[in-house]
Amino acid sequence: MEERCPIEATLSLISGKWKILILKELIKEPVRYNLLMKKISKISAKVLTHQLREMERDGLIMRKVYAEIPPRVEYSLTTKGKSMLRILKEMAIWGLENDKKHLSKCPTCKQCEFIENT
Q1: Which of 9, 47, 56, 112: disulfide with 92, CB 3.0–4.6 Å?
Q2: What is the mean pLDDT of the chain?
Q3: Which segments within the chain are labelled E, that is strand?
Q4: pLDDT per residue rounded down to tens, the chain (118 residues)
Q5: Surface-to-core class of residue 112, CB atoms within 10 Å of its CB (0-12 exposed, 13-18 middle, 19+ buried)
Q6: Is residue 73 located within the same domain as residue 112?
Q7: Is residue 40 located within the same domain as residue 73?
């Protein structure tokens, strides 16, 4: 087995522009695909689908399909995905302390507040 830097291992799971934002949106509860598209407004459907598949393959999220008409699919964090919340919490703290240009805060989604309470 080849040795690998632990930071590299972590980045291999959350690299890219969107995976952290997807994790953030799944913090509180399972979320349907269309709601993810709405909440992450600048992501394309193709990229969201690809990122969700990679995250499911890597064990960060779980995809649950309900046998309904029309079919309903929800995405939620796995235990492994929830373990990433420590990283998100530190990112939120860093952003609040260091982004003086934009006066970072979480006025609308309140996801960061949930991270701080975990």
Answers
A1: 112
A2: 86
A3: 31-32, 61-66, 72-77
A4: 788 898 888 888 898 889 999 999 999 899 999 999 999 989 999 999 999 999 999 999 999 999 888 889 999 999 999 999 999 888 888 887 887 776 656 655 566 555 555 5
A5: buried
A6: no
A7: yes
- Tokens 């890597």 belong to which residue? 58
Contact 24, 88 (CB under 8 A): yes
pTM of the complete model beyond 0.90: no
Compute the distance between CA of residue 118 and CA of residue 86 in angstroms, rounded to an integer: 9
Query: Which strands form 61-66's sheet, in the order they lie side by side?
Result: 31-32, 72-77, 61-66
| Residue 101 placed within a domain | yes
- Residue 9, H or E segment: helix 6-14
Q: With left for phi above 0 and alpha for psi between -120 and 50, is residue 18 left, alpha or beta?
A: alpha
CATH number, residue 59:
1.10.10.10
